[in-house]
Amino acid sequence: MRTVTVVNARDFSDTPGPRHISEGEFSGEKFRKEVLLPAFRKVEAEDGELHVDLDGTEGYATSFLEEAFGGLAREVGSAELLARLTIKSDDEPYLREQVKGYIVEAGGRRNRQ
Amino acid sequence: MTLRVPEHFSLVEHPEETLLFLAELSAHTAQNRNVILDLRGVLVLTPDAIAVLVARLKDRQFTHGMGISGNEPDDPGLRALFVDSGFYEFVTRTGTPGTSAGAGKIKRKRSNVVESRSAKALKDFASNSLSGSPQKWFAVQRTLVECMSNTKAHAGDPSVATPWWACVYADPARRVAQFSFVDTGVGIFKSVKVRGLQGVLRALGITDNSPQILRRLVYGQIESSTGKRYRGKGIPEMRIDLLDRKELDRLVIISNNVYADVGADKFVELQTEFRGTFVYFEKRPS
Asked: Given an 8 Å threshold on Cβ–Cβ distance, is B145 in contact with A25?
């Protein structure tokens, strides 16, 4: 049985912000660099799973989610990410498919080297 | 000189009349004239017009440093709306001060970066005013953050900070929160990104006018039209929140020479140009 690492997005911020760090606080870029990528590297090393809970915030701009998850897929590869990632979003259930879409779309553009 | 404010002072409902007035006001200040705004004859007033006027009055490109003063509408209800808006913090009042009727509440915020905490403060203010406690209005939060982000994306020079103004008027009588967002950038159609896009469309033989291009942006059809990667998912998401998820109750976008009432599928060309981008949306508590 694989180990599961849980990331609660609300621990990063209850008010997620823009795409890039340069645009303002609580950006998708910062979430990716400081939270998602280290967590993914950990589960990759452990051959585990990454569970991201999106609930408990005030809501997400599309640019935040695309930069966080699409950006992560561009870095680690969409297939690798999808194989280890589960998303919880009871507040906004449509975000699960939206995030998967960003990952697939990003991976189609630039696959892992 | 005295300039009469139009009877129907509403960017959302009467854009041509309101934009013509703003253009006239700017033309006078450009000629180094102090202006007295005559508001007495205003019959129809919506908070979005006040939000835009306040944003313009804080913009030196618009005022050219000239003094602007104003009186009050004869109508007591409209007078209260002006008072509640904080309008007279920016305009020297002439005549007898009116008083707030407490019929509505306005909160404003000005910045030049994306402030998700300010978006929450505006959303909480409105939902608390209408529902008695702050509510989770995901689409409102998302739309405000998207608008702030677009201010940077559609600025003329990305290295220059472009201020935005966000304003919410919570009307307890109509049980609706009316959000107005205005930036003083170059507008969607003069942004580098969209000018490039227009070039790509022309190269593909697509000769859409500006209203048609805005409709493509709203419906997320740009990527499928051009085959090019385009990151602008924010505006299509607003349309989805309005039409599909029903989390917003009205959405109007004005940028440069285009007016769009998205719910009515109305995309029209304006005779008088709006400098920058204006987004108006409504939210009713469930």
From this structure: no
